[in-house]
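User: I'll paste a sequence; please echo it back and then give the predicted structure.

Assistant: Echoing your sequence first, then the prediction.
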Amino acid sequence: MSATVEELETEVLALPAAQRAHLVEKLIASLDVEPDVENAWAEEVERRQGEIESGTVMLLRGPAALSRLRAEFT
């Protein structure tokens, strides 16, 4: 017997938040994605990682980044 979407939804919503988040990640990853988009993102990640490793960009901690954003956009 297969569960209906409504039954699955009820069961999933009863899971702890961490397990629901894990399931969401798996579900999103299972959706069809355009290979060109995936390749473009992979290239972007590699480019940014290279900038971090070479020291050409400066990383900020969360509070400092938020402070700068607030100053710029408020």
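DSSP finds four helices and no strands in the chain. The chain has a mean pLDDT of 92.
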